[in-house]
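Supplementary Methods S3. Input chains for the assembly prediction are listed below.
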Amino acid sequence: MSNFARQDEQALLIVNGLGHTYGGLQALKAVSFELFPGEVLAVVGESGSGKSTLLKILSSALTPTSGEIHYRSERFGKINIHQLAETRRRELARTEWGFVTQNADDGLRLGVSAGANISERLMALGVNHFGHLRDQANSWMEKVELPSARIDDLPRNFSGGMKQRLQIARNLVTHPRLVLLDEPTSGLDVSVQARLLDLLRQLVSRLDIAVVLVTHDLGVARLLAQRTIVMHRGQVVESGLTDQVLDDPQHAYTQLLVSSVLV
Amino acid sequence: MCDVTDRAIAAAPNVFRLHEGAALSAEHRSPTPAYSFAYLDEGTKRMIRRAILKAVAIPGCQVPFGSREMPLAYGWGTGGIQVTAGLIGSDDCLKVIDQGSDDTTNAVNIREFFSRTTGVQTTESTRKASIIQTRHRIPEIPLTEHQVLVYQVPQPEPLYKLEPRRSETQKLHGYREYGLMSVKLYEDIARWGHIDESYDYPVCVNDHYVMAPSPIPKFDNPKMHQMPALQLFGAGREKRIYAIPPYTNVESLAFSDHPFSVSPNEHACELCGSTESFLDEVILDKQRTLWTCSDTDYCKEQREAKHTGVE
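Predicted structure tokens for the full assembly:
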């Protein structure tokens, strides 16, 4: 975990005083953090701690009631993502960003083949050569360790782990700079989890992608993330290097979280 | 707003000419005074014309309109009939075809309908008609600036099989996000080795909107490109009108290494000998089939030209 936030580098994502209320319910309170290029940040916390709300706001599916998010885009420069025109935001979402959902069925087109799932973002960017799309799809099938013989099969017939790997390929094919992972391994059995985590770690470091990883599994955070923030009741209660947070938790809630891990 | 309207007027002089005709004829020549001229009331026809003007101003864009109940079932051309009713004037000459033919049930009924509710002249000749309402074909004889082609459309949304939400497809069209359309083509090539759309083959109009050309065979797609006649599309059940103004670019979608192509005719028409028209295979009995032009008027003209020796 050596390439932790380098001071000389400009932050890719700056989250500043983010708050959100659902009706009268305060789901998120003054959340701030920075994310640097190539860095993996884990967001841990129990159910209802505001993790998913945070991710929804980051992916601009939800507009926050207070606070702002600045993103340093390759195309548009430094921007406030919630003030960006919808057309540009959608462009970013299918080029510079990726979003891997908890339930792979939500992030895939189940009715079209694996190859088409991988190629969709490329075609949206105007790649108009079938042979080239096919090559890309094949190479990404290989990168995420899916058998290339199944390139024309429907993801509907894939196992849970395969679907999740396909979803990762579908998102990474345009080489995004920022990927949001929403509990990518929950719902998978332990051996499949381990392989998926291994794969994610390799891809993220090789492609130099910044990642916000939402998880309730501290093991996943320890394996993938350089930094961790701990959320409790919509607030960030502790943040720092992952090893530091998990080995020497300061906040009472983090201590509880760490001590309740079985292993 | 103003210049959009002006452009639409310039692009579609026919529509305005026909308006005036419609207003006049209501008093003079309607043979069935119990009905308004062309069946629909004047307010409805005005609403349809407004939708047509908007559609002409934004080529290929689906414009919603208040589709009315018509005296025939959805799927039998209610959209096309309403567009025609909005356009038609007493000095028009109407031709109606179904699968290229003037004498099939749908065509005969619609022609009779307008004949009774407007009293306009009807014809089977493509050259004589000023309005041609069509189901599933574009006539073989090239159309002119003085003609309007009205298509009956069952499903106006080319993306509906891939994205069922209207609200989302509207955005996809607005932002020109057509990755999804390519997904369909990709699937075809991956599965069949070629783009497996023989009819309703999607096109890109005026370099912006992807449009469903209604279930015409892809053989007819090239005819839409730079056509001198105004092309109007009406979908009654789906309540949408869209248009291709005269002389507009219409490009059939394809991949650069799998270009759009029309499969060649393997037969000549057995009645007129044409090798250039779209053919129907008519089953005569268990052993024999007859290959003949689907466009009956074209076939007739070819045969007559041979008899009189005129090429």
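Residues 190-207 of chain A form the longest helix (18 residues). The interface with chain B takes residues 86-87, 90, 94, 109, 112-113, 115-116, 119-125, 128-131, 133-134, 151-152 of chain A (CB under 8 Å).
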